[in-house]
DNA sequence: GAGCATACCTACTCATGCGTAGGGTTACGC
DNA sequence: GCGTAACCCTACGCATGAGTAGGTATGCTC
């Protein structure tokens, strides 16, 4: 039933989806949907939650905390893109629909914050291993950028059924790691004339 | 009048915005809106178009094509940040709305092509200067990642009034350039055991 | 088999909001 | 002063779709 919701929401968008169509897709009647999952808004949040949780679990399960940073990042990215590739509908619901609708931005902010926390923790861990340290804000910014870039590529992937998730993960890793790798070595770029 | 549209659309979202409210915001009556700009859908496209064009011009104007690649990227990024920062309720919000709504995917494809053209063209130019060449898809992916990261940082910035835009742009440049810089040198990361 | 609960459906109410019809107002020509 | 034309308004028609009322079938208890 949530599956039906996710399918229809991703096909039509939150507003374009009618409860009739969702009920139809699930093979039951509308009052049943209301009986089990409440209003349209609640139904959407339920879908959002489930897809988000599944994704988090997929990533957390892949990126074991005792691995070296690049390996962790790679596995995390691969799990992420693998998930998006396999659940294009779910991704569309999560990040396209939820982002556009002011009603759901709160939910989404929480999820992203958790993602950023994970990534920042990864970088922090790698830095401490080398005896270096960086202000928390600095890490947060880098993590934000990486998460944003990854989300963006996930969108790219979701629009291209022929694209390979594995290959996309590798590309992302190139951008993320070669950038982050330099940063971890203490190399920074400076604005000209600054 | 388009200004009113942009304001209301970004405040309420595409569906949440009513033509009455837009007309009210513009200080005229609804039939006037229809007389000048047609249906709600056409109005939205017009807003999207204008904001997108403005942003493109801001970036293209800042990043002169005869500069070295890092300088171009830096100026482009700064212009991008400046624009998104100054038009917080403008382009990025509309863009988000458009992505969620299947109605606008066509229009969006065109805009995206132009965006990618600007960012990827920058990278492509740098590559050709070194006599190297990379598949168009490859460039598109990198461009996507960079734009996504930048948007994400713009969000980060918007939530923190005390943060410095210039400094944030520098951080973004660090991630983007040190990553892209390595890539331009032909250095690529490979998956372990691949 | 009467009473009752569960599970589900058809068919409705009602609010919302896009798009428009038709009426008023001002300015100008004659 | 009267026609008329440009301009803009109020006030409505109408479709859509969220949420619900009230009915029907099946099964379970005593």
Labels describing this entry:
homodimer; 194 residues; mainly alpha; Tetracycline Repressor, domain 2; 0% strand
What is the strand and helix layout of this fold?
Two copies of one chain form a homodimer.
Chain A: H1 2-12, H2 19-26, H3 30-37, H4 40-62, H5 69-86, H6 88-100, H7 105-129, H8 136-158, H9 165-184
Helix pairs in contact in A: 1-2, 1-4, 1-6, 4-5, 4-6, 5-6, 5-8, 5-9, 6-8, 7-8, 8-9
The structure holds a DNA duplex (30 and 30 nucleotides).
Could you tell me the number of beta strands of chain A? 0
| Most extensive chain interface and residues per partner | A-B, 54 and 51 residues
The CATH H-level superfamily of chain A is Tetracycline Repressor, domain 2
N- to C-terminal separation of chain A?
58 Å
Report the top-level CATH class of chain A.
Answer: Mainly Alpha
Number of helices of chain A: 9
The figure for the number of domains of chain A is 1
Largest sheet report of chain A? none
- Tell me the series of helices and strands of chain A, N- to C-terminal: HHHHHHHHH
Q: What are the low-pLDDT stretches of chain A, counting only 5+ consecutive residues below 50?
A: none
Average pLDDT taken over every residue of chain A: 87
Rg of chain A computed from alpha carbons, rounded to a whole number of angstroms:
19 Å
Shape summary of chain A: elongated
CATH domain fold name of chain A: Tetracycline Repressor, domain 2
